[in-house]
Amino acid sequence: MASHIRRREMIVLLGGAAAWPLAAGAQQPERMRRVGLVIALPNDALIRGLIKAFREELGAQGWIEGKNVRFDERWVEGDATRIASLVADALGAAPDVILAAAPPALVALRQQTRTIPLVFVAVSDPVDGGFVESMARPGGNVTGFTSFEYSIGGKWLELLKEVRPSLKGVLVVLNQDNYTSRALLHTITALAPSIGVQISPARVRNYTEIEASITGFAQAPDGAVLLLPDAVLTAHRERIAALAAAHRLPTIHSFRFFVTAGCLMSYGTDNLDQYRRAASYVARVLKGEKPADLPVQNPTKFELVINLKTAKTLGLEVPPPLLARADEVIE
Asked: Is 35 helix (H, G, I), strand (E, B) or coil?
């Protein structure tokens, strides 16, 4: 009986020993994932805040930097000539997924990879841009979150008309190399007659050209400036705001950070919401889902922001109904 018990004990011990490698394997740390970020926007405090929100949201979904994920950031820094080499560096790090912030980043990434998953933000029409097959079924390696539809251009004109009823002309400042800006200009020009204004396009590549276009346009009365989304304008937003104020020109942009820089109004997407939602898609890709199966999503949050301090500088009285509709008023 004693030998029988010992034999049974030995079998249990041997069985347990055989299981040790399996248990040890189960306790192995998870493979470190790599998330690339290619950011075609200025590397300033505001944009860094958006990237911080993206990383924090990813962490809230279980992807902790240094534990199971590593971030590789590439900033274009307003120099479009560097973007191809930065993208090559980003791809060379063998990322599991890349966040493409702004159209120039997505364009450059799409030219160099059709396999590594790409999640974009701040792109307005990915179908027209040729990045996805459709909104519902993107196909390929790209998906993400759009910033707005082109019809928003009519809303910008209406807001300028509301704040300056005598409005006759609108200077539309854009980067001609940005396909989104070209499409927006087309829509805005088509809608302008119904609002009773004349459009003057200003195609710019740097601040010198921005300054010349605004200064020249300011000679005509009853004008306003519409600033289309682009990294060149974003990099100089404070100087643009000061220049427009000096010429007593009301301005509108799609993003809040132009209003905090001193422009009069913005109407567009909630940027923080965009970057947080992008983090949710990156998390899903890291868990094995494919961009081809993740539908491109339109914005869910829009915000109207008005700078009353700027309005006073311009000698404008913002109509009470417009103030009442504002999501934020800066005083």
From this structure: strand
The verdict on pTM exceeding 0.85 is no
- What's the rounded Cα separation, in Å, for the pair 127 and 106? 13
Q: How far apart are CA 110 and CA 244, in angstroms?
A: 36
Q: How many domains does the chain have?
A: 2
Segment 131-142 shows an average pLDDT of 96
**Does the pLDDT of residue 25 top 70, yes or no?**
no
Report, as an integer, the average pLDDT of 138-150. 93
Tens-digit pLDDT profile for residues 161-199 = 999 999 999 999 998 888 788 889 999 999 999 999 999
CATH of the domain at 313: 3.40.50.2300
Q: What are phi and psi of 250, to 5 degrees?
A: -70, 145
Q: Which helix (H) or strand (E) holds 307?
A: strand 302-307
Tell whether 158 and 143 lie within a shared domain.
no
Note whether residue 241 is domain-resident. yes
| In a domain? residue 25 | no
Domain enclosing residue 234, as ranges: 152-269+303-330
* Residue 77 pLDDT: 76
Contact present, 199 and 189 (Cβ < 8 Å)? yes
**Residue 22 forms part of a structural domain:** no
- CB distance 164 to 188 below 8 Å: no
pLDDT at 257 over 80: yes
Please give the Cα distance from 312 to 171 (Å, whole number): 21
**6 located within any domain:** no
